[in-house]
TrEMBL record:
Protein name: DoxX family protein
Native source organism of the sequence: Phyllobacterium phragmitis
Membrane topology per record: Multi-pass membrane protein
Transmembrane segments: 46-63, 70-90, 96-115
Gene Ontology CC annotation, any one: membrane
UniProt keyword annotation of Flavoprotein present: no
Keywords per UniProt: Membrane, Transmembrane, Transmembrane helix
Predominant cellular place of this UniProt entry's protein: membrane
């Protein structure tokens, strides 16, 4: 196994965890602009709390190597939903970030599974 693979995987996972933890905070204490976006996308007023809980869970799961694939998978699902929501609603300005984070989540998932396979 490439000795740098675990380091790269861990570094990307920690950056992704920081993104999701920051996102959880932002969705818990939502701005008026983002609250209006959720309503425009057709979500109920409380839905941002669901997003915050899922992002918090993904962020926490990403921190430990043992749970990293679950965090990356959950994060990918959350970002796939966010990407789909913005694309269906033709809100293309908001579609870029979740699409990039979806890609990073899938990379972290792949890397963490590869590290896990080679460690066994």
């Amino acid at each position: 196994m490439n000795k740098s693979l675990p380091t790269i995987s861990t570094s990307l996972a920690w950056l992704l965890a920081a993104f999701f933890l920051f996102g959880a905070y932002g969705n818990t204490f939502i701005s008026e602009e983002n609250a209006a976006a959720y309503v425009a996308w057709g979500y109920p007023g409380w839905f941002h709390y669901i997003t915050a809980i899922l992002e918090l869970a993904a962020g926490l799961l990403l921190i430990r190597a043992a749970t990293r694939p679950y965090g990356a998978g959950l994060g990918a699902l959350v970002m796939a939903a966010a990407s789909l929501t913005t694309l269906v609603n033709a809100d293309y300005d908001h579609a870029v970030a979740p699409s990039i984070v979806l890609l990073v989540s899938l990379v972290v998932l792949s890397l963490s599974l590869a590290v896990r396979r080679t460690a066994n």
